[in-house]
Design brief:
The structure holds two protein chains of two kinds. Chain A has eleven helices and three strands. Chain A is mainly α. In chain A, helix 1 packs parallel to helix 6 and helix 4 packs antiparallel against helix 6. Chain A starts with a helix and ends in a 5-residue tail after the last helix. Chain B is 30% helix and 29% strand. In chain B, the strands form three sheets. Chain B has a six-stranded mixed beta sheet with strand order 5-6-7-3-8-9, sandwiched between helices. In chain B, strands 11-12-10-13 form a four-stranded antiparallel beta sheet. A three-stranded antiparallel beta sheet of chain B has the order 2-1-4, covered by helices on one side. In chain B, helix 3 runs antiparallel to helix 4 and helix 4 runs parallel beside helix 5. The radius of gyration of chain B is 22 Å and the shape is elongated. Chain B starts with 5 loop residues before the first strand and ends with a helix. The chains are: A mainly alpha, B alpha/beta.
């Protein structure tokens, strides 16, 4: 089956290779000015906890200078879906659409073995390609990771081992969708929707709770500068620990202004504080392992369902 | 080893609400060349798909070479199935397609396949082949498996008569070499009548007629005579079909003895006439109903 898989999917392998080369070239070209600026401004001296004078100007300047590029790297968050759209979804749907399943599934290889061999081999290819993409992104983002960390949403899902896990999940989704919907385009659409929905739900509602967040109490007037950590919430509370609503805060500020007092000073005299709930930077790899495990587990479950269903398809 | 190559027992297949095949019980004897005849939508393709393990039965069971093709898919390595339209990968070269079959079949026999593919460029894309070449390739793939059972679904549908004849010859040569059992589905009676020694006629998802060609031809007679009321005719068991033309009456009958009544001209019937009579589209009462009508009429 290895030969069969290669013969039917080598064009996709070439496509993936092309994308990876394009990604690497784009990464090298855009990374050169970043590295130059990083060295030129000696930003390494601003990496926390070190903080020489002027960092509060240099670092934001550096970040805003390359902010557009950093935003552009967010596209890598959806790239793993390509494995599902262009490899997974057509895997069975194309056979059903063109009737070639009548040939493929009536040879000496049972259709379960056919599906398992193909999916397993394509999974290996997918993991390798996604792993390389992840390494390129990690190399590219390293200056920003040292400054702002990578456990937060801007870095977490395009670095590390979650990227291959997302790709694997997308692949399995595509395979199952192809089997259920029997049409390539329908399967691709379903894959994209399911992939997007799952990624959204996990990153919004599950990932923040992988481990109990830590809390830190800071002064009410500091703007929670906690570089490297993933800040989940930042609430203003009064002396009794009750949450201050936005309108109450506005009222206090207004009150201070009318009385001619500095609002900051006024708020401090009220005994208000900020409670920051966060996931520390040191949990990055633990979180990576948990999220990658979650997606890999989902992928395995989807493939098992497909293996079970394929025996009863197409009727 | 000696289990019949194909056995259907109460086999039925439903697509949504419609039954494509219903209550089909059938045994194909070993070594037979079976013509699976019937009009369009009679259930021929469905029966072959069920035998090839492509579809699952809705009721009843089917056994191929002694095994359920869905539970024991490995048995398909010994079944040469060519689906309708011979679906193959159009982007593959001929040689790739052969390689595919070699790698997925343990009993693969290259020589048989190559023999059928002389005159076809092995580097040509499957999508660029003519209908005849493509049918030949599909047949080569099926026979290269050294199958014990060959299932062909309308293999001649898109071929000109010459190509069809050639393909049929290749099929029969290959089958003779392998000693395989063959089931060829075709709605064109002429295609199959020259080679098959066994007939299964399906209409509306049921077996309408089944048996060896010789026995069927021997047990049917065509009677021609003047149109007039008559008593029962000695030697006639059932009237299958009757047709009036002017004052003449022509009847296809099954016999249970020699017909000696001098008022009737008795002719042998060709297989084509026989099958057409059984599957004629207009009013297709089953044999028993016809018999009752005939009896009253004999009055």
């Amino acid at each position: 089956m290895a030969w069969v898989t290669w013969r039917q999917h080598w064009t996709q392998a070439v496509g993936a290779l092309g994308l990876l080369v394009a990604l690497a070239v784009a990464a090298v070209l855009t990374r050169l000015p970043i590295a130059a600026a990083f060295d030129h401004d000696s930003i390494s001296a601003c990496v926390p906890p070190a903080a020489r004078t002027g960092c509060d100007i240099i670092v934001p300047h550096f970040e805003s200078q390359f902010g557009g590029l950093v935003t552009a790297t967010r596209v890598m968050a959806v790239v793993p879906a390509l494995a599902g759209l262009f490899v997974g979804a057509p895997l069975i749907a194309r056979e059903l659409e063109f009737g070639t399943y009548r040939f493929a599934w009536t040879q000496g290889v049972s259709r379960r073995r056919w599906l398992l061999s193909k999916t397993a081999l394509l999974a290996v290819g997918t993991v390798v390609a996604a792993g390389v993409a992840s390494l390129v992104v990690m190399w590219w983002r390293s200056p920003f990771d040292t400054l702002e960390g990578r456990i937060g949403p801007s870095g977490f899902d395009i670095e590390g081992i979650v990227v291959p896990a997302y790709a694997l999940f997308a692949l399995a989704l595509g395979v199952l969708a192809g089997l259920v919907f029997r049409r390539t385009v329908a399967a691709m659409t379903a894959t994209l929707i399911a992939f997007g929905a799952t990624r959204f739900l996990v990153s919004e509602f599950i990932r923040p709770h992988f481990m109990a967040p830590l809390h830190r109490v800071i002064s009410a007037t500091t703007t929670s500068a906690m570089p490297g950590d993933w800040v989940l919430s930042n609430t203003l509370v009064d002396g009794g620990g009750r949450q201050i609503t936005a309108s109450r805060e506005e009222l206090a500020v207004l009150h201070a202004q009318q009385a001619g007092i500095d609002p900051h000073t006024y708020i401090l005299t009220l005994g208000w504080r900020r409670i920051v709930s966060y996931q520390p930077a040191g949990r990055f790899w633990t979180f990576q392992l948990l999220e990658a495990g979650l997606y890999a587990g989902l992928a395995v479950a989807l493939v098992l369902v497909a293996l079970w269903l394929v025996r009863r398809t197409p009727a | 080893m000696s289990s019949p190559p194909l056995v259907a027992d109460g086999l039925g297949k439903r697509f949504r609400r419609d039954w494509a095949l219903r209550d089909l019980t059938l045994t194909i004897p070993k070594g037979a060349v079976v013509g699976l005849a019937g009009p369009n939508a009679a259930g021929k393709s469905t029966l072959l798909s069920l035998a090839a393990g492509v579809l699952a039965p809705s009721e009843g069971s089917i056994s191929v070479l002694g095994d359920d093709p869905l539970r024991t898919p490995e048995i398909l390595g010994e079944v040469g199935y060519v689906a309708q339209g011979a679906p193959l990968y159009r982007s593959f070269r001929v040689e790739d397609t052969i390689e595919y079959a070699r790698r997925t079949n343990s009993r693969w026999d290259r020589e048989i396949a190559v023999e059928l593919l002389t005159r076809i460029d092995s580097r040509a894309k499957v999508g660029a082949l003519s209908a005849g070449e493509r049918a030949r390739l599909a047949l080569a793939l099926a026979l290269g498996k050294r199958p014990r059972l060959v299932l062909l679904d309308e293999p001649f549908a898109s071929l000109d008569p010459l190509a069809a004849r050639e393909l049929l010859q290749l099929l029969m040569d290959g089958v003779a070499e392998l000693g395989a059992t063959v089931v060829v589905a075709s709605h064109v009676v002429a295609d199959i009548q020259r080679v098959c020694d066994h007939i299964v006629l399906l209409t509306g998802g049921c077996v309408r007629l089944e048996g060896g060609v010789e026995e069927l031809l021997e047990s049917h007679r065509l009677l021609t005579g003047p149109r007039r009321p008559l008593g029962s005719i000695r030697g006639v068991r059932e009237v299958v079909r009757e047709r009036y033309s002017g004052r003449q009456l022509t009847m296809l009958v099954t016999t249970d003895g020699p017909i000696v009544d001098p008022s009737w001209t008795v002719d042998r019937v060709s297989l084509e006439e026989l099958l057409l009579a059984y599957m004629a589209p207009e009013r297709l009462p089953n044999v028993r109903k016809m018999e009752r009508v005939a009896l009253r009429w004999h009055g």
